[in-house]
């Protein structure tokens, strides 16, 4: 904004606050990494300076990958996130396109309903939903979460895409209509290819939200073979009152990495989606 | 005469188009409703129906795996006479209010600090958002270890600074446990406020600051009378969003304290979970979850109206 401060003032106005926020934001991740690399003898010894690793070991990672179902959970998490994101993008487009482009009675009401559903937090619905899933016989199947995640992701994608669609100029579609293309052709061949950035934003958000989801996964997935990473880590690496902190931190770090990598590739899209005021926080 | 006949040709062509199936499908209303039918049916089945069913459940005595019996408002009366329920209500409001204020003030400070030119700014912004994008459960496990009763690294710092051993019991003391969940919720949500407000700040035209400076406004006055009014809409949206999802928070508390010690950190969502999934009382649990509804409905309606994109 304004430049031309002296070095001292710049330290106080810029580096101290930014440094403080950065250290606080990142310390838990540093602590995950440090803990996951320490041998148990070092981890549970109060007389050793804890902030650095004195004798690094990969034992916790090896144990995590060989003695627990962590790889299965990772696969389940990815599968669920990809499928539910894909379903949600398709259904989201089917809601957002007419709302953005067509004039019909009830459009305003539908848009409001979608926005309202998008704002309904899961804890309001999880008890009846658990009963519904059980009656459908979907308990302990990945279908249970693949089916329920889109209940939050569809309104979310529709809402984000609706905002994006309205920024796309209409001239190309009008030209296609004059040339005799049907509405469906116009949407599929002309309009949707123009909206790739919108799909990337919505897709990344939906993907991170599914990776993040905990409540439905906790209720619906109680067998190790179908668990996702968050539920697996909480339910199986905390055994009774015994904590395997090295493994827990290794699991927390490895479980965070896929989201962090995908996010780092698309950080601009992420921030664009974030700032369009369309995110659950 | 010629004008009239052209109009007739137009009418005839339109008629022709409307009678064919393709033409019918191309009508805006037909196309729209056909297109929206699958997602709307999906949402009706898995959001609308469970919502109504949840209300019915709350009026039943319904143990898990048994048929329910209709008991009217008995569950709500039980809640009303239950001191734990009122404790949970107070906890939820305190948690939401404190975390929201901290996130708003801290987020604004972060945005103002970041709204300067400095090297690696984009990298710093990306790193700042990590707490918000990483799965909450996993980062909460790290906090659990940071606050561990025996091996807390936070207490290691405090002891090094002269606090007597063994240092505070963060999750064992009711007040400190509440403080801990508030701080961790703030840690997770603050980047969302900060980065969103930063984007808002960047849309403030620099001329406004220049004009204010020429008119003799101090830095505080520029903030108070230029920045804040222009940021107000975005602050309102971000805050409403955050309040809704803090009010209904589940995972942080479930992982960190399970609502303890002695229900000191129990929120509506975790309490409803304990009753419905732990004790298997679906009807009673549904009534606790529904207790969130009035406040949530108010917030959701307010935000929906505010966001209207019609």
Short characterization:
By secondary structure, chain A is mainly α. Chain A has helices spanning 7-37, 40-43, 59-67, 70-101, 107-118, 126-135, 142-165, 171-178, 183-191, 196-212, 215-220, 229-236, 245-265, 267-275; strands at residues 238-239, 242-243. Helices cover 75% and strands 1% of the residues of chain B.
Q: Structural class of chain A, please?
A: mainly alpha
The largest beta-sheet of chain A arranges its strands as 1-2
- Strand percentage of chain A: under 5%
Shape estimate of chain B: flat
In what range is the share of β-strand residues of chain B? under 5%
Q: Estimate percent helicity of chain A.
A: over 70%
Q: How many angstroms does the end-to-end distance of chain B come to?
A: 43 Å
Biggest sheet features of chain B = 2 strands, antiparallel
Strand order of the largest sheet of chain B: 1-2
Largest sheet of chain A: 2 strands, antiparallel
Average pLDDT taken over every residue of chain B: 87
Find the biggest chain interface: A-B, 102 and 106 residues
How many helical elements of chain A?
14
Radius of gyration of chain B: 27 Å
Given the helix and strand composition of chain B, which structural class is it? mainly alpha
Shape of chain A: globular
H/I helix tally of chain B: 16
């Amino acid at each position: 904004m304004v430049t031309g401060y002296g070095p001292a003032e710049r330290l106080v106005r810029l580096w101290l606050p930014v440094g403080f926020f950065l250290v606080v934001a990142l310390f838990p991740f540093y602590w995950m990494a440090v803990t996951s690399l320490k041998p148990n003898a070092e981890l549970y010894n109060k007389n050793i300076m804890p902030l650095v690793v004195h004798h690094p070991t990969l034992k916790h990672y090896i144990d995590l990958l060989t003695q627990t179902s962590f790889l299965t959970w990772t696969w389940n998490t990815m599968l669920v996130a990809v499928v539910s994101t894909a379903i949600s993008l398709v259904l989201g487009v089917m809601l957002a396109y007419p709302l953005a482009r067509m004039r019909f009675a009830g459009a305003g009401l539908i848009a409001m309903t979608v926005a309202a559903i998008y704002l309904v937090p899961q804890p309001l619905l999880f008890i009846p939903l658990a009963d519904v899933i059980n009656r459908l016989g979907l308990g302990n199947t990945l279908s249970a979460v693949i089916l329920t995640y889109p209940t939050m992701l569809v309104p979310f994608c529709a809402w984000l895409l609706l905002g994006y669609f309205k920024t796309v100029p209409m001239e190309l579609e009008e030209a296609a209509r004059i040339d005799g293309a049907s509405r469906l052709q116009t949407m599929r061949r002309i309009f949707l290819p123009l909206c790739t950035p919108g799909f990337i934003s919505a897709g990344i958000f939906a993907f991170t939200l599914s990776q993040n989801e905990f409540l439905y996964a906790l209720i619906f997935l109680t067998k190790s073979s179908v668990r996702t990473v968050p539920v697996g880590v909480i339910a199986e690496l905390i055994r009774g009152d015994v904590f395997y902190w090295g493994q827990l931190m290794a699991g927390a770090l490895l479980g965070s990495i896929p989201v962090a990598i995908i996010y780092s590739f698309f950080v601009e899209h992420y921030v664009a989606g974030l700032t369009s005021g369309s995110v659950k926080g | 005469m010629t004008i009239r006949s052209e109009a007739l040709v137009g009418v005839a062509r339109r008629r022709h188009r409307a009678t064919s199936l393709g033409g019918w499908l191309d009508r805006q209303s037909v196309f729209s409703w056909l297109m929206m039918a699958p997602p709307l049916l999906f949402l009706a089945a898995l959001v609308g129906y469970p919502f109504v069913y949840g209300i019915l459940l709350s009026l039943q005595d319904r143990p898990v795996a048994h048929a329910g019996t209709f008991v009217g408002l008995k569950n709500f009366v039980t809640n009303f006479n239950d001191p734990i329920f009122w404790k949970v209500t107070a906890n939820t409001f305190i948690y939401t209010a404190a975390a929201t204020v901290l996130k708003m003030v801290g987020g604004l400070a972060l945005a103002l600090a970041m709204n300067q030119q400095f090297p690696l700014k984009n990298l710093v912004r990306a790193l700042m958002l990590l707490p918000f994008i990483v799965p909450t459960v996993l980062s909460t496990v790290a906090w659990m270890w940071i606050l561990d009763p025996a091996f807390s690294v936070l207490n290691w710092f405090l002891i090094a600074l002269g606090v007597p051993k063994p240092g505070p019991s963060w999750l064992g003391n009711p007040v400190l446990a509440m403080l801990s969940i508030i701080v961790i919720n703030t840690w997770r949500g603050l980047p969302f406020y900060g980065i969103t407000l930063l984007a808002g700040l960047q849309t403030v035209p620099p001329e406004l600051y220049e004009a204010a400076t020429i008119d003799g406004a101090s830095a505080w006055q520029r903030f108070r009378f230029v920045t804040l009014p222009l940021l107000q809409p975005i602050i309102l949206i971000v805050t409403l969003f955050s309040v809704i999802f803090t009010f209904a928070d589940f995972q942080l508390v479930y992982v960190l304290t399970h609502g303890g010690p002695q229900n000191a950190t129990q929120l509506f969502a975790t309490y409803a979970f304990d009753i419905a999934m732990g004790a298997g009382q679906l009807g009673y649990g549904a009534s606790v979850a529904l207790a969130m509804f009035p406040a949530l409905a108010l917030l959701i309606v307010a935000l929906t109206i505010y966001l209207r994109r019609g």
